[in-house]
Amino acid sequence: MTSVLSFLASCTLIAASVRAQSSEDTFSYVQPLNTTILGAYGHSPAVLPSPNATGNGGWEAAHARAQAFVAQLTLEEKADMVTGQPGPCVGNIVAIPRLNFSGLCLQDGPLAIRVADYASVFSAGVSAAATWDRTILYERGHLMGLEFRGKGAEVALMPVSGPLGRSAYSGRNWEGFAADPYLTGVAMEETITGVQDAGVQATAKHFIGNEQETQRNPTYNASIAIDYVTFEAVSANIDDRTMHEIYLWPFANAVHAKVSSVMCSYQRLNGSYACENSAVQNGLLKTELGFQGYVMSDWGAVHTGVASIENGLDMNMPGGIGVYGLFPQLGSLFGGNLTRAVSNGSVPESRVDDMITRIMTPYYWLGQDANYPSVDESSADLNTFSPRSTWLRNFTFTGTRSRDVRDDHGEAIRRHGAAGTVLLKNENGALPLKAPKSIAVFGNDAGQDTQGFYNQVDFEFGTLAAGGGSGTGRFTYLVDPLSAIKTRAAQDGALVQQWLNNTLIATSNVTDLWIPALPDVCLVFLKTWAEEAADRQHLSTDWEGNAVVDSVAKYCNNTIVVTHSSGINTLPFADHPNVTAIVAAHYPGQASGNSIVDVLYGDVNPSGHLPYTIAFNGSDYNAPPTTAINTTGKDDWQSWFDEELEVDYRYFDTNNIDVRYEFGYGLSYTTFNVSDLQASPIEADITSVPGSQPIQPGGNPMLWATIYTVTVSVSNTGGVYGAAVPQLYVTFPDTAPAGTPPKQLRGFDKVYLAANQTQSVTFELMRRDLSYWDVISQEWLIPSGEFTLSLGMSSRDIRTTTSITPVSGGNYTRRAL
Ligand SMILES: *[C@@H]1O[C@H](CO)[C@@H](O)[C@H](O)[C@H]1NC(C)=O
Ligand SMILES: *[C@@H]1O[C@H](CO)[C@@H](O)[C@H](O)[C@H]1NC(C)=O
Ligand SMILES: *[C@@H]1O[C@H](CO)[C@@H](O)[C@H](O)[C@H]1NC(C)=O
Ligand SMILES: *[C@@H]1O[C@H](CO)[C@@H](O)[C@H](O)[C@H]1NC(C)=O
Ligand SMILES: *[C@@H]1O[C@H](CO)[C@@H](O)[C@H](O)[C@H]1NC(C)=O
Ligand SMILES: *[C@@H]1O[C@H](CO)[C@@H](O)[C@H](O)[C@H]1NC(C)=O
Ligand SMILES: *[C@@H]1O[C@H](CO)[C@@H](O)[C@H](O)[C@H]1NC(C)=O
Ligand SMILES: *[C@@H]1O[C@H](CO)[C@@H](O)[C@H](O)[C@H]1NC(C)=O
Ligand SMILES: *[C@@H]1O[C@H](CO)[C@@H](O)[C@H](O)[C@H]1NC(C)=O
Ligand SMILES: *[C@@H]1O[C@H](CO)[C@@H](O)[C@H](O)[C@H]1NC(C)=O
Ligand SMILES: *[C@@H]1O[C@H](CO)[C@@H](O)[C@H](O)[C@H]1NC(C)=O
Ligand SMILES: *[C@@H]1O[C@H](CO)[C@@H](O)[C@H](O)[C@H]1NC(C)=O
Fold first, then answer.
1. By alpha-carbon position, which residue is closest to atom 10 of ligand 2?
2. Ligand 11 atom with minimal separation from the 755 CA
3. Which of 559, 588, 604 marks a domain boundary?
4. Is the CB of 33 within 6 Å of ligand 1?
5. What is the pLDDT of residue 559?
6. By C-alpha distance, which of 48, 96, 106, 51 is closest to 70?
7. Which is deepest, 160, 426, 604, 641, by most CB within 10 Å?
8. CA–centroid distance, residue 100 to ligand 4 (Å)
9. For residue 11, what pLDDT is reported?
């Protein structure tokens, strides 16, 4: 969801232009309409009916309680249970007092409880992924969960694995984790487990194929009618294998981790709106993955009533009709329409019962019926999406207003921010700083925010610690880099000078600042904004960042660049001899300044690694968003995912394209060695086809069984304490189908090592890790022949390899069609 304003801003006219070839220019990409391939994957087959939940996989008792609850409901109450209402939270299911049900409060978002006061702003998903640290991913999710709970929100609208990062330009990549399904899958599991261990329902979103913001929603012509559509939303057209191996993969982890809810996405998918796409909702999610929770819509992503219900949607949010569901006073496609559809037999009441059973099962499983905190009334005051004037129902507030839920989370957020900071370049021992006596600080990202702590615009002056849209947070404080540097530098009695106007820096002779002489170090802070509802226009830093660096580095031979960014930035100054260090700090959250100072001064040894690839030029990336069409058909917005599995490093590796900093790359102040890579099978007879077992949440449980253990020794050889991220990449044998990427991440660990310490690290390869999705048999198959296992410190810094042959004999069994 997003604000009305940004919706209106995104109602742009169709522009007919082509993608600019120059590296950093604003680009636009016209997707030609290709009717030839419409037949191949331009449509979705119907998968009906929507399967009933059973509570299978550990939710049986909660499922029985949910069924008992449903049995007591009137039809009108049933409609209420599946239809959002305007209220204090961004999504609201109203209370049913006679059944002691106090309703559901649904709140954004992936880095904070957004509509709240006295809550923390955590690191963004991209920063959390850059830690490659399961413990931090869990802890971050858990602490956020405690804050949602403390504010009385039963449902947290997070975490994000769609967008995954198909396109470097997508405006919401920072809300999600990594441009890799394996790392994102681990991040989803850890985050969801952390959130739900706090008693809060997690929501995996956006299901599925939500890889661009441009035209994610239809274009409406409100002068004709509130919901009159001139162009349908873009259709993400994804083939079956790519769907399984890339985009569905992390959602499988989410379901495996027993996620309560899955949010369907705005755009169309293979021709049908995602929230009424039965192939993915009934087929992939509820049948193949055995999902037992409920599908909720993104805000206003519902375009039909009966069809959406039949096709697997369980909850309509925020409930009203029209753009973003913003017009509840004009009715709902669920609500009264649902009671009518049941009464006249269009929708079987058993389907509605299943919808509510799915909604109430996680509620009981998490014990939310007992002593759950009430909704904090301050949410109602801060809720710009459904302010009090829009409410159609009464909400009673009990409990204290403006409860402070931050506890001591600021300390953890500082650690998380530092752990997600990636050191990209470090020459001449530039970092860590060695008690410099004279420091010059440059850039409009260095200082305190100048436009308030709830930023929804790319303001010029002030540091960026989160992006915009529904995935942002409301800071209660924000430690800016300049203040943190001054505090730390005072310990050394250092002189700190600042110059924060980028335009001025870019056009000036910065030696004016040399007081009394060349500073020991010049720290340049650059930023890159990204937000929901808009894709990025370029991959450079904003506000003339490249010119700022050039201007400083011309006179300062120890220029250190720090970026606060939504993700990928091409860094044309990376080869400049005076740019001695580059640090990608992403969006670290409220302790930003302290997190970066900890790394710059060496109190924390950097251990972040890139969760995406930094290429030389913007034009080196494939799969740009479709930004325009040059035909006028209502259905013509199409985005063909015809790069298939070639997302991020899979593309650069397949096509042997040189990159500046590859996926998984990140430096440390120490060095590491790896040795003694060994792989051994868990069982003797590994079959190509998984044994068939009853579906559990996450799919066939055989896919999650470890079939190989891989061990390696990691040593800290560099003299200071630090953390290594050994990464295991798998190369499939030639018997795998064409299009299989040269190597794919299938294991990683974060290993904290004292100087001279050596530790053995174990990776567990599951059956899914060594399988491809066979579109003929509709099975995950292990191809016969030899796999190569590569252990590296990045995707291109491979230190040692070994090979395994799980399935020998040359032929493998395919299940008959
Ligand atoms: C419009 O699309 C057609 C293919 O459908 C293409 O040949 C033509 O060059 C496009 N025009 C522009 C301006 O992009
Ligand atoms: C349309 O798709 C087909 C099948 O993938 C391909 O062979 C053809 O080149 C495409 N046509 C255009 C104009 O892109
Ligand atoms: C769901 O359960 C109800 C009640 O047992 C039954 O009538 C209905 O047919 C079931 N639906 C499906 C899709 O199995
Ligand atoms: C509602 O809660 C009260 C107080 O705990 C209890 O006495 C009553 O039986 C409950 N009613 C229902 C329908 O569960
Ligand atoms: C039913 O849906 C229509 C839109 O199709 C809407 O105009 C109407 O208000 C809805 N009815 C109710 C009772 O919500
Ligand atoms: C809200 O509560 C007031 C006072 O109890 C009552 O008069 C009014 O009818 C209620 N409104 C709704 C929409 O339930
Ligand atoms: C920043 O510097 C430019 C160029 O000198 C100037 O035009 C602009 O007014 C300055 N901005 C502020 C806020 O001082
Ligand atoms: C910048 O200032 C320094 C010190 O005054 C001077 O040596 C240098 O020539 C100046 N550079 C330019 C381009 O004016
Ligand atoms: C690097 O900085 C020094 C001043 O310390 C300057 O003389 C030199 O020209 C700079 N190098 C480049 C390539 O700009
Ligand atoms: C920068 O230049 C100064 C003065 O020439 C020199 O003392 C210093 O060592 C140089 N620093 C680096 C990092 O090259
Ligand atoms: C690490 O080992 C080296 C070589 O044996 C030794 O010189 C050094 O003191 C050791 N460092 C620590 C911190 O133990
Ligand atoms: C593989 O199967 C085919 C067809 O059944 C058979 O002709 C061939 O000999 C088999 N190859 C091996 C290596 O077993």
1. 34
2. 13
3. 604
4. yes
5. 98
6. 96
7. 160
8. 6
9. 25
Check if 35 has its Cβ closer than 6 Å to any atom of ligand 2: no
* Statement to judge: residues 372 and 510 lie in one domain: no
Starting from the CA of residue 319, give the closest ligand. 5
Using DSSP's 3-state secondary structure scheme, residue 186 falls into helix
pLDDT score at 237: 94
Is 216 found in the same domain as 311? yes
Q: Is the CB of 693 under 6 A from ligand 2?
A: no
- Domain assignment present for residue 614? The answer is no
In a domain, 36, yes or no: no
How far, in Å, CA of 646 to CA of 40, rounded?
19
Give average pLDDT by consecutive 10-residue segment, the chain, 817 residues.
34 26 54 57 83 98 98 98 98 98 98 98 98 99 98 98 98 98 99 99 98 97 90 95 97 99 97 96 98 98 97 98 90 98 98 99 98 97 95 95 98 98 97 98 96 90 97 97 98 96 96 85 98 97 98 97 98 98 98 98 98 97 95 92 97 98 98 98 90 95 97 97 98 96 98 98 98 94 96 98 86 43
Which residues, in sequence order, are bridge partners of residue 559? 522, 579
Protein residue with its CA nearest to atom 1 in ligand 8: 509
Beta carbons of 588 and 564 less than 8 angstroms apart: yes
Domain count, the chain: 3
Rounded Cα distance, 730 and 168, in Å = 24
Question: Do 339 and 442 fall within a single domain?
Answer: no
Structure tokens at 437: 């006596």
In a domain, 379, yes or no: yes
* Whether the CB of 428 sits within 6 Å of ligand 10: yes
Q: What is the CATH number of the domain that holds 126?
A: 3.20.20.300
For residues 386 and 430, membership in a common domain is answered with no
CATH code (residue 483): 3.40.50.1700
3-state secondary structure string, 640-696?
ECCCCCCCCHHHHHHCCCCCCECCCCCECCCCEEEEEEEEEECCCCCCCCCCCCCCE
pLDDT of res. 32: 66
Is the residue at 405 inside a domain?
no
Write out the two tokens for 44.
């979705």
Ligand 3 centroid, distance to 314 Cα (angstroms): 15
240 is catalytic: no
The most distant pair of C-alpha atoms in the chain lies apart, rounded to whole Å, by 85
Ligand number with the minimum distance to the CA of 305: 5
15 touches ligand 1 (CB under 6 Å): no
Range of the domain at 171: 4-28+53-390
Query: Pick the catalytic residue: 108, 117, 180, 298?
Result: 298
Ligand 3 pocket residue status of 331, Cβ below 6 Å: no
| DSSP for 246-308, written as a single string | IISHHHHHHHHTT-SEEEEPSSEETTEEGGG-HIIIIIIIIIIS---SEEEE-TT----SHHH
| Domain final residue pick, 565, 588, 604 | 604
